[in-house]
């Protein structure tokens, strides 16, 4: 039985205040969905079985390139971070896994696993870091890592990734995500072709070290930290990587890593069609890699992404099991609250996509009835599915209103007394 960070009776008391209203809202929504031929309980069951991983690096206040304004009770290290992740899962019942970033989260693997077990958490994809230099590191990544011109630096980056796989094996993880910042800041600085050849050769070495039941995710990002060219800049390059490396290699789509207005849902559809959608880093963005809360800026886009995922599920695409992970940075909110909301927004998009009338949609598409086709999507999107989300949480032992329950628990105040104040400072990294 998991160790609870928030007293279960407090969640029960908070839920009791809202139980009657939820029941009425759930019944009303059930009746209205019933008239559309949808069984609300079937949707609730699916939503309750949908999970998303929390990033260990998301529970501390992130900061920007300019400054970091820490909150109180900031986690001191990975074990505090896991405690915070457990709170998010306890309240939402949507986030039973955590994605670790090495070397930020480096600790004894046995202790990490024991802590995860005690909290009822397990570990999703491991993330390597060759985009910054770790203290004491022999060779610098200032001019690149897996694509560096210097073979010894590339080797160091390869070995770091292999070490991440080893740590992940001890933790029960089944995937490694590789995102590198390699690129150039000036035209002429780097030979595009040679640099990509070096990158592919280095990734092939990492791929060789991958256990059979693991996947290797490469993550594309248009720019930053390199501002002229980036090696893995878009999904096209990413697809080439996955295709070149082999069947265990797939593409990871971080929603914030595209140019504004990019049709991300279509990228998702293409990757699904060719068996190369590995997973997601969910977040939202207005301008670039903003790492804002999922659904905070463009909730309709999030829904359209889920529409593609549910379409694939509906079509029974073979071997389709993308990894769902959040990748956010929080500057002005309590990270626990933001992550709670994001997990809910992601489930909301899933629930809305589940209630799309897919037969009607296919009919309108065949008839070239653009208006009714788009209206079919909108009808699902306009439906307030909150009672489904709340009921899924309640049934699993979570909170009907998780942010309110979190505030009522006084968790932040409690950890603020235990954890020393974190120092404000210069820029963060993401
Ligand atoms: C890069 C990125 C990548 C990193 C994380 C910290 O912008 O999205 O996923 O691992 O941020
Ligand atoms: Mn990311
Ligand atoms: Mn990012």
Helix content: 40-55%
Kindly report the name of the CATH homologous superfamily.
Divalent-metal-dependent TIM barrel enzymes
CATH fold-level assignment? TIM Barrel
The low-pLDDT segments are none
How would you describe the overall organization of this protein?
- Keywords: Isomerase, Manganese, Metal-binding, Plasmid.
- InterPro entries: L-rhamnose_isomerase, L_rhamnose_iso, Xyl_isomerase-like_sf, Xyl_isomerase-like_TIM-brl.
- One of its GO terms (molecular function) is isomerase activity.
- By secondary structure, this protein is of the alpha/beta class.
- The chain has one domain: Divalent-metal-dependent TIM barrel enzymes (TIM Barrel, Alpha-Beta Barrel).
- It is built from 15 helices and twelve strands.
- The protein has helices spanning 8-35, 40-48, 78-92, 109-119, 151-171, 192-208, 235-245, 264-273, 299-315, 335-354, 358-366, 370-382, 386-395, 402-409, 411-418, and strands spanning 54-55, 97-99, 101-102, 122-123, 126-128, 175-178, 183-184, 215-219, 229-230, 249-254, 277-282, 323-326.
- The strands form three sheets. Strands 3-5-6-8-10-11-12 form a seven-stranded parallel β-sheet. A three-stranded parallel β-sheet has the order 1-2-4, covered by helices on one side.
- Helix 2 crosses helix 13 (386-395) and helix 3 (78-92) packs across helix 10 (335-354).
- The chain starts with 7 loop residues before the first helix and ends in a 12-residue tail after the last helix.
- The model has no long low-confidence stretch (mean pLDDT 97).
């Amino acid at each position: 039985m998991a160790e609870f960070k928030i007293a279960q009776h407090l969640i029960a008391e908070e839920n009791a205040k809202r139980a009657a209203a939820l029941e009425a809202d759930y019944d009303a929504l059930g009746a209205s969905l019933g008239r559309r031929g949808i069984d609300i309980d079937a949707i609730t069951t699916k939503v309750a079985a949908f999970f998303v991983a929390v990033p260990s690096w998301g529970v501390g206040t992130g900061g920007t390139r300019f400054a970091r304004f820490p909150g109180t009770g900031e986690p001191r290290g990975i074990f505090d971070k896991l405690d915070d992740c457990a709170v998010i899962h306890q309240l939402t019942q949507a986030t039973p896994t955590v994605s670790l970033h090495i070397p930020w989260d480096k600790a004894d693997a046995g202790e990490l696993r024991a802590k995860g077990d005690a909290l009822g958490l397990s570990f999703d994809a491991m993330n390597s870091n060759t985009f910054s230099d770790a203290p004491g590191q022999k060779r610098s990544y200032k001019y690149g890592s897996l694509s560096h011109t210097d073979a010894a630096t590339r080797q160091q980056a390869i070995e770091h990734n292999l070490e991440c796989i080893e740590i992940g094996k001890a933790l029960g993880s089944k995937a490694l995500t590789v995102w590198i910042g390699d690129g150039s800041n000036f035209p002429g600085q780097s030979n595009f072709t040679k640099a990509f050849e070096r990158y592919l050769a280095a990734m092939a070495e990492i791929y060789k070290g991958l256990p059979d039941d693991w996947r290797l995710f490469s993550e594309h990002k248009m720019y930053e930290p390199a501002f002229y060219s980036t090696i893995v800049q878009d999904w096209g390059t990413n697809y080439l990587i996955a295709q070149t490396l082999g069947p265990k290699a797939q593409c990871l789509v971080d929603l914030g890593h595209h140019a504004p207005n990019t049709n991300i849902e279509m990228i998702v559809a293409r990757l699904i069609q060719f068996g190369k959608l590995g997973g997601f880093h969910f977040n939202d963005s207005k301008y670039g890699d903003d790492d804002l809360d999922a659904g905070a800026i463009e909730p309709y886009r999030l829904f359209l992404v889920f529409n593609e995922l549910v379409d694939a599920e509906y079509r029974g695409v073979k071997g389709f099991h993308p990894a769902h992970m959040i990748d956010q940075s929080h500057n002005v909110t309590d990270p626990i609250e933001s992550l709670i909301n994001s997990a809910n927004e992601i489930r909301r998009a899933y629930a809305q996509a589940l209630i799309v009338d897919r037969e009607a949609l296919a009919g309108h598409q065949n008839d070239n009835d653009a208006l009714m086709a788009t209206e079919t999507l909108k009808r699902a999107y306009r439906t307030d599915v909150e009672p489904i989300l709340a009921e899924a949480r309640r049934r699993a032992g979570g909170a009907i209103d998780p942010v309110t329950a979190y505030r009522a628990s006084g968790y932040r105040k409690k950890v603020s007394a235990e954890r020393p104040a974190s120092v404000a400072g210069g820029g963060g990294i993401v």
